[in-house]
Amino acid sequence: MDRLMALALHSSRRNFLVGAGRFAGAAAAVRLMPGAAFAAEAGGAYCPPPSAWTDLAKAVKGGAVLRPEDPFFADICRPNNLRYGATLPAGIARCGTPQDVQACIKWVKEQAMPFAVRSGGHNYAGFSTTPGLLIDMTLMAGAEPVTGSDGLVRVLGGTLNSYVYKQMERLGRTITHGRCDSVGAAGFLLGGGIGFNMRKFGMASDLLRGTELVTADGSHLKADATTESALYWACRGGAGGNFGINTSFTLETRPAEPVTVFNLVWTKDLPKVLKLLLTELAAAPDEFGSKINVTIPSWQERCANVPLKLSILGQLHKSSMTLKEIFKSTWELIDKDQSQIKENVPYWTGQDFLTETTFPYYYQEKSSFMKAADIGDEAIAAMFDWAARMPATSMPVAFKFFQVGGAINRVGPTETAYVHRGYDWLFSVEANWWRPTDSALLIEQALEWQQRFYDDVNRRTKAQGAFQNFPDPSLADWQRAYYGENLARLAQVKKAVDPTMLFTFAQAIRPA
């Protein structure tokens, strides 16, 4: 990809989708598996005998097993976050059926082999990388209506969002979904799942009506409101990789109706406009969904005098209010030459306008949840002060506000494992870079800037928590930040289905 095109496409990737899987971090796996620990201490790779790999290949009947010498091995195992790209698996099992997944679980236990599970590979913290066995779910792709149901759709565990979107369009249906079509549906759903529909329909996990998964003992379980209900509760926001490998999801869908989509830009009085947007849009109707971006230019762009840019992307379902009425005092300040509005277009045509194209690069993201009433002028001024102090890398960065509230807040924080209810905005700040263009020192400075920005803004806004689908390896008290008052119950579910932590990674839920 042309480098300038890549920079243009970036403009704040990772916006409404998050990554597939949060599975099996190598460091934690090394601690728990004696065979793996021996290999790590010896400085060697995980190397079962050739006969073991042959046995695995025979057991994975619906797919295939790849080794490093096989074509496309490096392409399949490459994560979206290249920060973790140096961690290469000893082998890849491409599973086509739940039985293939069961065979992999049996094999890794026999071989004391760490493993990770992947569909889209978009885990921000690299938890879908491993030096052991990479269980690739992407052959298990599909999304079909459930026979005899009223709008239920069954999505297979390795399906990418692009396939889900195409099938939903064919059916004339929709769900809460994101913008990045190469993300895996599994990780997106299990960690909550945000998107422009969430204020109208709830989190994506709120629409989950059932799931099937392979657990640590090799069982293939069905979990819903009446069967394995505790496990079902945990799968609605407890994040991927904690309780098993999900092989299917049954989702409640809604009719896909026309929407108005927009990308609006402001170039003047940015602190004033941002404050007004964060305050006034909190009162918008549930039919309105948005994401605010403040984009900080790269060092190349700064050399060309490219300024900070404030923009908002989103959609409006049929509503009693117009966009002009919703945006109130900021409407007249819009830079009309740089802004776009497409009114009353077919739903999936509108999503084509909103869809984000992404590519692998290096990044870290930090997040928290805010209430509009707590975001004062002082906090806004601090955000722009920090933006001016960004040690510019070769990639633009952004601080962002994903609009929550609406239907999300009408579900209690303990009704599902997704605890983050009662807020108006999900805030995040990026650090992005490219290697070897950016030096190790510059990257260190950018990460320090990100941490200080995050800490200062959180303090000024009384922000709380962190979004589990934006996993942050530098987050200190991640257990409480991700899961809050639901942590103890999640630990009990973990104890019931995975007491020895076969499914583990650096930020895995521990059994009670």
Instruction: Give the distance, in angstroms, between the N- and C-terminal Cα atoms.
Output: 47 Å
Approximate shape: globular
In CATH terms, what is the fold-level topology of the largest domain?
Vanillyl-alcohol Oxidase, Chain A, domain 3
> Into how many domains do the coordinates divide?
3
CATH architecture of the largest domain: 3-Layer(aba) Sandwich
Q: Over the alpha carbons, how many angstroms does the gyration radius reach?
A: 22 Å
Q: Indicate the percent of residues in helices.
A: 25-40%
Mean pLDDT metric: 92
Q: What is the β-strand count?
A: 18
Describe, in plain words, how this protein is organized in 3D:
With 512 residues, this protein is α+β, with helices and mostly antiparallel strands. It folds into 3 domains: 5-12 and 257-479, Vanillyl-alcohol Oxidase, Chain A, domain 3, CATH 3.40.462.20; 17-136, Uridine Diphospho-n-acetylenolpyruvylglucosamine Reductase, domain 2 (2-Layer Sandwich), CATH 3.30.43.10; 143-255, Uridine Diphospho-n-acetylenolpyruvylglucosamine Reductase, domain 3 (2-Layer Sandwich). Helix content is 31%, strand content 20%. It has a 7-stranded antiparallel sheet, with helices on both faces. Strands 5-6-10-8-9 form a 5-stranded antiparallel sheet. The chain has a 4-stranded mixed sheet with strand order 1-2-4-3. Strand 8 and strand 9 (220-224) form a beta hairpin. Helix 2 crosses helix 3. The longest helix is centred in the C-terminal third of the chain and has 22 residues, at 440-461. The model is unreliable at 1-44 (pLDDT under 50). GO terms for molecular function: FAD binding; oxidoreductase activity. It comes from Azospirillum lipoferum. This is FAD-binding oxidoreductase. Belongs to the oxygen-dependent FAD-linked oxidoreductase family. Pfam families: BBE, FAD_binding_4.
